[in-house]
Every structure is written in structure tokens, then in C-alpha cells.
């Protein structure tokens, strides 16, 4: 299985760059950027983790924790910038560091064990619950943790979803665009529309930029049930 998530990688780098440049741009938007970065990082982390199952006992946690220090560097840099910019809410330095440590060392290994075998329907229900949770949790570290959980669950939903289906891609982008329009038309819905827009756009970008099956060269003849490009069945993720 080959995977290309270049747009998500570029988007994650862009969000990190904007957060680091927040003191020069607009510190007021930094909490939104931090929350989006948590969702993006969680999605990318789950997508990159190709383990079918964790090792038994504590070794599964240990193997994940050993990889965590390198992933903490962007969060540490973001916390330093938040300190300079006097970030508030989800962009407070303590909120960023507390959420990053909780998500990397506790929440992600726990979610991997709890929801690793879920199919897309259960993942979709969990996403709905987490979108609601993102809207009602107190401002600060809990917002970042909820967005991280939404990113992990959203990636699981995408992995279990339709493979290369144009309708799914359009539905994801349509949901994100609808949430953005709703937020501007009814500002009171911003706390609910924001996580919906974020996860919809992330799933849409992943669906639109992914090759999840080996490509075959075209054949020069027609045949019964063959055609120019032989279809392949998707492997389970």
C-alpha cells in the first residue's frame, strides 16, 4: 500500500509556520491555529502508525513513548512562541504543553487500544460525539485534547472509509465548506462549526491526495472483464 498525503503535510507545516509567526501577525487567531494543528498532528500520527496491533502489556506504550521526543519539538517551539505572544485559552503555553504530553504519552496509546478495530460507522459516531465535545469543553488544554482525539478518530474513519471514491471526497469538502458558511452566517455556532470544518477538510484533503492501491500500467487490449486498467481490491488498513 502506498500513501501520499502531501497536501496535509504542507498544511501542517503552514499551520506550524503561522503559529510561530503569530506574534508578528495576529495573536488573536493563535488559539484556532493551535487547535487545528492538534487535529492535523493526530491525523498524521495515526496514518503513519501502520502497526496492526500494539505489543502486549507495557511494551506497546514504551515503543510509542520512545518515538515521542522528536514529536514534542514542534509543541515546545509553539509553547515558546505562545509565551512571547501572551497566548490565551488553547494557545496558552501551559495548555499547549499539557495537552501535548497528555496526547502523546497517554491518549494516543489508549485510543489505539480502544478503537483500533472499529469500522467506519462506529468511528463516525465517535467523531460526532467529539465534535460536540470540542464545542463544550472549557477553553485551554481540554480543547486541544478534544481536537487531538477528533483527529485520531477522523483518521480511523478515513482509513475504514471508501477507497478513492470521488463522492466521499466531495462530501468531505462540502461538509467543511458548509461549516465555514454556517460559522460566518451564525457566529454563535462557531464553537461547533470550527471542529466540523477542520475534520471535514482534513479528511477531504487526505481522500483527494492519496493513492491507496498499487498502480498498474495500461494494457493494450480489451478483454472480457479486463479493460485498459485492471481494478484492484483495496487492502484493509
Automatic annotation (TrEMBL):
Which keywords describe this protein according to UniProt? Answer: Membrane, Transmembrane, Transmembrane helix
Residues crossing the lipid bilayer are 7-26, 91-111, 123-139, 168-186, 192-211
User: What protein name applies here?
Assistant: Uncharacterized protein
Organism, scientific name:
Sphingobium yanoikuyae
